Amino acid sequence: MPIATVNPANGETLKTFDPLGAEEIERRLATAEAAFRTYRTTDFAERARLLNRAADLLEQDQQDIARTMTTEMGKPIAAARAEAAKCVKAMRWYARNAEELLADEHPSPADVKDAGASRATVHYRPLGVILAVMPWNFPLWQVVRFMAPALMAGNVGLLKHASNVPQTALYLEDLIRRAGYPEGCFQTLLVGAGAVEGILRDPRVAAATLTGSEPAGRSVAAIAGDEVKKTVLELGGSDPFVVMPSADIDQAARTAVTARVQNNGQSCIAAKRFIVHTDVYDAFTERFTARMQELTVGDPMHDATDVGPLATEQGRADVEALVDDALSHGARVLCGAQRPEGLEQGWYYAPTVLAGITDSMRIHREEAFGPVATLYRVTDVDEAVALANDSPFGLSSNVWTRDEAEVRRFVRDLEAGGVFFNGMTASHPALPFGGVKRSGYGRELSGHGIREFCNTTTVWHGPEKAG
């Protein structure tokens, strides 16, 4: 894929970029290594001052960077502004909390004595240069939720962003520079996917984090494993949205629409499989389908738009292939399943609801990265749990129930990194985020996330000298 800004609303190529050559990559690696040697010694107060300054600048830039994101990958402009605001919030949260999250830990006096020590502490020290390989769907947020904790921990970052959001990637480097960070603390590398292996194998790179597809995660994990370097992976998701009889059906249906079409349906944590108890299936389906049909599809620069184009032409083709396969195996279309009329220039796809899904269909196993919902009918909580877990992914999950026994059952048995009751999955800086199974491993955000790229160091002092 060329490194270029291509407007998905009309297919127009607006700007192209040459990838960095080997000499420039080497210069940036050397700069990052040099920056880490000094930046790692800064105190939390200085790191917080710099990150708060970056947050202030991002807040001032909110309108402009929102337009850049929408131009590059098609998210509705209102959602782009909200993404920028969320990044500001996360940066300030880490600036405020990092020192406490990384405070030295002190084992109990009894355990210190039993370890044969006079004193013992656990310290969290930065690892070094961290490579971040990031996707286009949340081009600002995905990076900031790595960047903010990494910088507050004393690490430095190298960003290999998706090739279709180069201007957003360059903005992030410039934001850190304008905030006053030392040179090399955070750099954007405009390179193709083929350059990742060489960068990751470089001994100056300590670890990597990747958010993206399962194949990309497998590749980065294999390379890092060969080099014995740590990785954090956040990969695909096919999150269940379970509706039980005690749920508020009208609220569930309204939330289900947002949960499915957020970011034009291109979100790993979007609800994708709607698993509904037979007692409320008809009522939920009627309300959910009607609201999906009412969504406004169109120019993402308009505030009234609910669903914009998919980010790439190939992305739309992939969604169409999944839908066509489902239909060929007997799925029923309740709405959508076509390109909207009057929007032929861009990569639009109508909000779609499919019923009659079986395990013979690709969409039952594969992630639909677009505004396509699949409906399932179940008869009891056992069937709901089994169907929710019948997926290679395990990122998050949504459950609508007021029955406390059902709540306990879903918490115990759902195979996912999160269980959200009577609401939709969302990320927040105070809550750990990540998945299980083929959705990846490790956690972002919260104290768990900031400690992922720290060296947890045990410090042991021998017995005090007698007398």
Automatic annotation (TrEMBL):
One Pfam assignment: Aldedh
The protein's matches in InterPro entries, at most eight in alphabetical order, are given as: Ald_DH/histidinol_DH (IPR016161), Ald_DH_C (IPR016163), Ald_DH_CS_CYS (IPR016160), Ald_DH_N (IPR016162), Aldehyde_DH_dom (IPR015590), ALDH_GabD1-like (IPR044148), GABD/Sad-like (IPR047110)
* Ranges where the Aldehyde dehydrogenase domain occurs: 3-459
SUPFAM superfamilies cross-referenced by the UniProt entry:
ALDH-like
> Is Lipid metabolism given among the entry's keywords?
no
Write down the CDD domains for this protein, in alphabetical order: ALDH_SSADH1_GabD1
What are the protein's UniProt keywords?
NADP, Oxidoreductase
Task: Spell out the family assignment given in the record's similarity comment.
Answer: Belongs to the aldehyde dehydrogenase family.
Please identify the protein, giving its name as recorded.
NADP-dependent succinic semialdehyde dehydrogenase
